[in-house]
Each structure stands twice: as C-alpha cells, then as structure tokens.
Write a structure and sequence with these properties.
CATH topology of the largest domain: Helix Hairpins
Strand order of the largest sheet: 2-1-3-4
Mean pLDDT: 80
CATH architecture of the largest domain: Orthogonal Bundle
Number of strands: 4
Strand content: under 5%
Radius of gyration: 38 Å
CATH class of the largest domain: Mainly Alpha
Distance between the termini: 52 Å
Shape: elongated
C-alpha cells in the first residue's frame, strides 16, 4: 500500500525553508488576501513570511491552504519524485535537478515524500540553506566592486577635467608667446629695413672723410643684426618645443579618454550583472521550466551560453570563485589556466581542446601564454576575447560579447 504524502505541519522545524524556497512573496500575499488576513500598514516581507511559518506548524486553515498551493504549484516535481522507492533514488533525482538549477519543486517533493529518511531530509535542507548564503555573499561582493568602480570612475573624470584645464592654460600661454614673438619679428624686420636704408646712405658717404667712422658703425650694426637673427632662431626653436609639448598633451588626453571609456563599459557590464542578480534574488530560484529557448529573462543560469565551455587564461587566483560564479550566471562552464605560473603549457593545450571560447586578461597574464593562446585559437578557429583588466567587470564584458555572438 502506497504511503501518504507528509503535510507541511508534520515537517517539524522545516516550515521556514520550505515556505521561503518553494513559494514567492506574491504567493504569500495572495494567500493572505484569500484567507482574509490584514497586516498592519508597512508590514515587511519578513513579517508576512514569519506569520505563515507560525501558521504552518499546526493543521489550521492557513496550513491547509499552503499545503494545497505547494502541491498545485509543484505537481510535476511531486509526480516525478513519487516514483522513487528509497533514499538512493531520491538522492540521485535530487542531485540531477539541483545541478540543473531546479530547486523549489524538487525541494518540496523530497521534504514531503513519505519514504524520505531523516538523514536525506537533513542533507537536502543543508544544501539549500548553504546555497542561500552563497547567493547573498555573491551579491554583496558584486555591490562592493560596483561601488569601487564608481569611485574610480569619478577620480578619472576629475583627472580628465584637470588635464583639460591644464591643456587650455598651456594653449593660452603658447598663443600669448606666439603673438609676442610675432611682434618681435615684425620689429626686427622693421629694424632691418631701417638698417638697409642707412647702409645705402653710408655707401653714398664713402667718399667723405668719415669713412672709417662709418665702417665702425656698420660693423656694430652687423653685430646687432646677427644677435637679432640668433634671438629669432631661439624663438622659433621655442615655438617648435611648445608645439611638441602640446602634441604630448593631446596624446595623454586621448589615452585618458580611452581609459575612461573602458571603465564606463566595465561599470555598465557590472550594473547589468548586479541588476540581473537582484532580479534573481527577488523572483526566487529559477523554476526550471524555461527550456532550451530561454533568453535569460528569468535572471538565472539558463541563457544562450548554457552548455558552453569558456577557458580563462591568467587572471587573479583569489578571484576564481567569483569568476566561476559569474560564469554560472551566464549558464556556461568556466575552465582556468594560470598562464604558466604553476600549470604547464601542455595542460593549457588540453583545456583549449575542451573550450568553446577563450578569455585572456591583458593585465594579468604572461606574454608566452598570450602568444600560445592566440596561435592555438587561430589554428582551431575558436573565438578569443582579450579583456582589458583581470577584474570581474572585464570577464562580464567578454561574456556579454559571447552571449551577443550566440544570438
């Protein structure tokens, strides 16, 4: 004779995780209206959750409504798990659904299964409990990283404004000096014309008795002319040096703009990532019914990169957990090679054979590894994306590009 399914009030102290994981806040507030429950104005989601947890501990009207709603919402999972006759079959089916990201329905099916042992129930509860901690920690880390990037972006904007001010000041100084030199050159030309007129007059007076004195004066004028020419040459050299300085400033300005654009793209990628993760937290775990055609609108790892394998060469080892968590958000598997610090080039070839695409951060990888990856990707016609930085944002931008390419 088949055993009867467990009711929610028979689950000892597991009502809280079952309600929090298997029902959304929209489900609970709908239940409150159905049961005629009126909460105080401004009651939080936590207040609503706690009230239903307390009601679920005894077989009252609220608990029976919750039991009915759980069975209706997760009827497919219940029907599938009801075919399992022992703990081994239940554990294997749970592992298959958990690895695919399908948590709510299978969790209720295991907790309410009449044949599930206390050990299996505790094991499944512990896994779901730790998963909630990991998701919360990942969100806090990404928010801190976004705050750091925003502060860095502000510093770059201020530095760019300061550099523009200095460039305008330098240009104004150069224009002032140029006008001054032009006036001096005009004066010199006028003086040369006057000297030429005097020279002609002196030539006419060569037959006079003052020839010697005039020659002396002519020599003096020639010396003045040479000095003026020397001053003019120095002025022209100064103008050329100032022009070269302006070119250097323009190159620095273009570099600063490119750096700022790179940071803006990184911030945008992280904002999209954080928004997706916040949407995933608010909507609850993916119900697992998206199918192969899911476009990632549910906010979970079921996007267009699902089933893909991405190799990350180089980077910072202390961020590997975050790299892999980010890749899971896109639905792909992330392989890693440290670029030759401890792992051999032969191992890199093995990973390249498994990968569908390769990401390589330019600021944290050896030249040998970069050359090897470029040559291997070109030979195997696999896409290679060069990230501007080894941070989370650089990887997020590359995964966005891969996802758009898949579209």
């Amino acid at each position: 004779m088949q055993q009867k399914q467990k009711n929610i009030w028979e689950l000892e102290d597991f009502q809280c995780p079952v309600i929090g994981t298997c029902l959304t806040m929209g489900d609970l507030r709908t239940a409150a209206r159905h049961l005629g429950m009126r909460f105080t104005p401004g009651a939080s989601d936590f207040d609503v959750h706690c009230w239903f947890v307390s009601q679920a501990k005894c077989p009252g009207k609220a608990a029976r409504w919750l039991q009915k709603q759980l069975n209706k919402k997760h009827r497919r999972s219940l029907a599938l798990f009801r075919k399992c006759a022992d703990d081994a079959a239940l554990a294997a089916l749970w592992r298959e659904h958990a690895d695919a990201g399908d948590i709510p329905g299978p969790f209720w099916a295991v907790m309410s299964h009449p044949g599930a042992s206390q050990g299996l129930i505790s094991e499944v509860f512990g896994e779901v409990h730790m998963l909630s901690h990991l998701l919360g920690a990942a969100n806090r880390a990404d928010l801190r990283r976004l705050d750091e990037l925003e502060r860095g972006n502000q510093l770059l904007a201020e530095a760019l404004a300061e550099r523009k001010t200095r460039l305008r000041e330098a240009a104004a100084v150069w224009k002032t000096r140029n006008r001054k030199l032009e006036r001096e050159l005009e004066d010199e030309r006028r003086r040369r014309q006057e000297a030429e007129g005097e020279r002609i007059s002196l030539r006419e007076a060569l037959q006079t008795t003052a020839v010697a004195a005039l020659r002396t004066e002519r020599d003096a004028l020639a010396g003045h002319l040479d000095a003026a020419r020397h001053a003019r040459d120095e002025a022209e050299a100064t103008v050329l040096r100032q022009a070269a300085q302006i070119e250097d400033l323009l190159r620095e300005l273009r570099l600063a703009r490119a750096t700022l654009a790179e940071r803006d793209n990184t911030v945008a990628a992280l904002e999209g990532l954080v928004a997706g993760q916040m949407a995933a937290v608010e909507s609850g775990p993916c119900p697992g019914r998206c199918g192969e055609g899911c476009d990632g609108a549910c906010g979970h790892a079921c996007g267009r990169l699902r089933g893909k394998c991405v190799l990350y060469v180089g980077g910072r080892c202390n961020l590997m957990a975050h790299y892999r968590a980010l890749a899971q958000r896109y639905g792909c598997e992330l392989l890693h090679h440290d670029g030759g610090l401890e792992q051999s080039p032969g191992h890199l070839h093995q990973l390249l054979a498994r990968a569908d695409a390769v990401v390589c951060p330019l600021d944290c990888v050896s030249h040998e590894a970069t050359t090897l990856v470029k040559r291997a990707c070109k030979g195997s016609m696999k896409p290679l994306l060069l990230a501007g930085s080894s941070g989370i944002g650089g990887l997020a931008r590359c995964l966005d590009e891969l996802e758009r390419a898949v579209q």
